[in-house]
Structures are given as structure tokens and as C-alpha cells.
Amino acid sequence: MIFSRELSILNVMEPIVSRLFEDNYVKTGGLHCACEKCQIDIILLALNHMPPHYTSSQTGEAYIKALYMEPQLQSDVLRELTNAVKVIQERPNH
After folding, report:
1. Is 10 helix (H, G, I), strand (E, B) or coil?
2. What InterPro entries is this protein classified in (predicted)?
3. Which residue has the higher pLDDT, 72 or 48?
4. Distance from CA of residue 34 to its chain's centroid?
């Protein structure tokens, strides 16, 4: 199947994880190494341990983001981020 350039596919978890990471680790100075490589590795590791939520519309993106305003789901994301931070801080890839 060939996709048109007008449609894009988005894993909505990417901006959700990135925002929570920024708010809870980067802005607070909670990282031993805050280099860009470590930050990306943390986000990628966390995303790899979470189910993806794909959409191709802004409506779908808004719906999924609204789901992740629920405290339990945010807690799940933060748990995966915390685990990823521990792994990357112990063994940085730079």
C-alpha cells in the first residue's frame, strides 16, 4: 500500500512520553547526564516498553491524548520513564 503525502501516521505516545519526560526529568534537573543522546535513548527505551497508539488524524490524536490525562495512565508512562532513566544512567551510550 502506498500512502499519500497528505496523510501522516503518528504514534501519539511519542509526544505524550516526550512531554512527561521534559516536565518530570529535564525541567527539574533530575538527570545525571542531560545530553541529547541520553535523553533520546531514555524516551526510546520507554516507548519500546509501551503499547503504541497510532492515528492519522488530529481528532484521533486529541482522543488518545485525552485518555492519557487519566492519572493511572500517566503513572504508567512515568513508571516506564523512571525505569528507562535508571537503565540509561547506569549504561549511557555515548
Report:
1. strand
2. ComFB (IPR019657)
3. 48
4. 16
